[in-house]
């Protein structure tokens, strides 16, 4: 982390956390829009579930966590949860386009 504002009191800390939360939620929303688009380019539900891509993303973010000083376990847990949600969302989008879902 290159620069972190040195807060003078708890209110300043909370203001900075609120600013970061807004940015995180905005980025989640943006990521979700791209996930929705991805369904258009996939031909099977197996592609949507994307085991290889999930592994690739997890390796990349774990490396990023190390580089940026983030807790690697927290980062991995957040990403696993987020990816699971986005896969479910993308499967719904996939189905809404009339593409077949797996029968389990």
Tags for this model:
lyase activity; 74% helix; chorismate mutase activity; chorismate mutase; CM_II_prokaryot; isomerase; Chorismate Mutase Domain, subunit A; 104 residues; 4 helices; mainly alpha
Account of the protein in words:
There is one protein chain. The chain is mainly alpha-helical. The chain has one domain: Chorismate mutase (Chorismate Mutase Domain, subunit A). It is built from 4 helices and no strands. Helix 1 packs parallel to helix 4. The longest helix has 29 residues. The radius of gyration is 17 Å and the shape is elongated. InterPro entries: Chorismate_II_sf (IPR036263), Chorismate_mutase-related (IPR051331), CM_dom_sf (IPR036979), CM_II_prokaryot (IPR002701). Keywords: Isomerase, Lyase, Pyruvate. This is chorismate mutase.
CATH topology: Chorismate Mutase Domain, subunit A
Q: How many strand elements?
A: 0
Radius of gyration: 17 Å
Q: Unreliable stretches, pLDDT < 50, 5 or more residues?
A: none
Number of domains: 1
Tally of contiguous helical segments = 4
SSE succession:
HHHH
The average pLDDT score comes to: 92
Helix content: over 70%
> Tell me, what's the shape?
elongated
Biggest β-sheet: count, sense, barrel?
none
Query: Given the helix and strand composition, which structural class is it?
Result: mainly alpha
The CATH superfamily is known as: Chorismate mutase
Amino-to-carboxy terminus distance? 45 Å
Name the beta content range: under 5%
The CATH top-level class label: Mainly Alpha
> Architecture in CATH?
Up-down Bundle
